Amino acid sequence: MKKVLITGAAGFLGSHLCDRFIKEGYHVIGMDNLITGNLSNIEHLFKLKNFEFYHHDVSKFVHVPGELDYILHFASPASPIDYLKIPIQTLKVGSLGTHNLLGLAKAKKARILVASTSEVYGDPTVHPQTEGYWGNVNPIGPRGVYDEAKRFQEAITMAYHRYHGLETRIIRIFNTYGPRMRLNDGRVLPAFIGQALRGEDITVFGDGSQTRSFCYVDDLVEGIYRLLLSDFAEPVNIGNPDEISMLDFAAEIIKLTGTNQKVVFEPLPKDDPKQRQPDISLARKLLGWEPKIDRAEGLKRTYAYFKSLSPDELYKKEHNTFEGYIVK
Ligand code: NAD
Ligand code: UDP
Q1: How far is CA 189 from the centre of its chain?
Q2: Annotated active-site residue in 26, 121, 146, 177
């Protein structure tokens, strides 16, 4: 039985990856310090013999006994609200955490896939974004803690590949959504759906002309699975090219939820990218991958999940506690 270590296992994407690798017959070791994740996302796996969980901060030395075939490094705060509130931990997990996991991969002769992001393109001047575009990132802006950690992550991963001959994979993930996102994580989709469910105004930042392209989680997981098993070491975009402005997206959510909420405009956060759309030609060619679930279907499934949450979850404002810090 192949063994895979998944960091960030209790988070949104990590938990879906645990499910997929269990389904594929792997022995899965989940690792997470629960700073933005929640054990409820993986509690259904604890009864399985081929699932283990380590409560650990990967920015500290990582030890896993025995052999390992694969490592998927997904630990990192991912929503702007999270990484603005915990900037140092965000920088550490992308840099020190990645270094620790590359070292572990080298020691175990394991293949490692690291989760990078469309944020490496910053506020892009090339549209749609191809892997060959080097990006437009403000290193000292508030989002720099995330973007630059991820850019460092890519650089050190390529260095381990070139210098140590490590088998590495880099995925650049574009905005992904689906069940198990935290309703209060500040990302636009849970924010809008949460507001609709609570009967609040829908907060569009700026004039709402900025765009994003949303990928349903099952499509992303399929892309990750294929990339891991491919032999391509350079970064690959995975995302859904179907682009929409945030104002149109607010209208879609109002329609989806059958509510009659008012849209209110709030200031655009600093360095908020104006447009974002993946060029997925490389993934199509290399992996034969493209998204299969359109936004109407993906939103229906995601809304069903959010509607099933308890009122406690719906009104929860506070986040987790981490080593004495209250992460609000
Ligand atoms: P998430 O916040 O739901 O999950 C991240 C998980 O990592 C959480 O469970 C958190 O507790 C854990 N974690 C954070 N720091 C850690 C540390 N030092 N040690 C151990 N665990 C730690 O976020 P997500 O959306 O699931 O994102 C997962 C990964 O995918 C991140 O690396 C993120 O940068 C990347 N990504 C996500 C998206 C997206 O749209 N969801 C887009 C681009 C990139
Ligand atoms: N956004 C918004 N209202 C909200 C939350 C976010 O208009 O309540 C906008 C945000 O300014 C950005 C887009 O939605 O332009 C996507 O934001 P998100 O935080 O989901 O992720 P990003 O792609 O910026 O990392």
Answers
A1: 14
A2: 146
